[in-house]
Structure formats: C-alpha cells, structure tokens
Amino acid sequence: MKSTLLLLVLAAQCLWILGTVTVQESRLRSDVAVLLETRPIDPRDLLRGDYVILNYAISDIPRELFQGPAFQQPAIGTPVHVALAKKGDFHVAVAAYLRKPKGESRPLLQGRVVQSNWTAGQPNSVRLEYGIERFYVREGTGEPQGKLTVEAAIPPNGCPVIRELYLDGKPFAEAMSDIAR
What we know:
20% of the residues lie in helices and 41% in strands. The protein has 181 residues and is an alpha+beta fold. It has one domain (27-180). Strand 2 and strand 3 (49-56) form a beta hairpin.
C-alpha cells in the first residue's frame, strides 16, 4: 500500500514537471517573434542571483493609440492588448485595445496597467507591464554595458516569453563570455 502511494506521488511529480516543460516550450516555439528595444536597470536578487530589469519602449502607451468606443482612463491592473508593427529593426506599438480585437492581423501583446498619467493639459499615457521585465543571468553578469534588445515569442494568448536577450546584437551569454576573456 505504502509503495503504491509512493509511486503515485512520484508519478504525479514527474507529470507535473513534464507538463510545465511542455507548456513553456510550446510558448517559446510560437510562430510570432518580435524584437523589442529596451532600457535596462541592473539590480541583484539575494535569493535568485543577478538579473536585468528590462524597461521597454512599448511600455508607455500614449492615449491616442487606444482604439474603441468612448475611451476612459483604465484602472490599475486592467488588461490592455497592444498591436505591434515592425518599424526599422524593432517592433513598436501602433494601437491599444481594452478588449482583444477580433481579426487583428498584427502581433498582439497583452499587458497590465501599472500606472496612468491622466491630467488636464499634460501628455496622457498608460504604463504597462508585460511579464517580461525581468531576465535572470549568470552570476557576475548582471551589469552589462551596451545596448540590450529582446527577442520575444508571442503565443496566441498574447502573453510574451523572452526567447533571447541580446547585448550589442550578440546573444547575452556569448557577449558576456567574450567580455570575460
């Protein structure tokens, strides 16, 4: 009886791990990939090690990009769908929706409102987070010097996943090992 229970517990744990890996790999293999411009801030997490905070150019969405009827200031935590289009080397925000639009052919990222700047006579914008603002790196490499860009996969649900972080056009790990030499 005890050995059967132990085997069931071990099998459940293995299935959970395999399921998690399968879900993450399917998100990374999404057909849609975009290159995003970043502005880094470099902290350190005592429990998890070095990481880079990534601040995206598409994180601040001006009011005029919002589409749809009678737009009002969104509350903190409101989901926003951002349509992207390639401009030069990077994808930029070209439209934003409070409800996921049907038939949108452009890549759509889903973010959440973290700050609204709505004041009379001032530029109106909404600050979004997409869930890809933190990228963990090998210890001692959390303070890169150079231009960081992100290649993100966008699965059908719109929640992006970082495929690769680039430092001056090279994959991050490769660029940091070149610097260490």
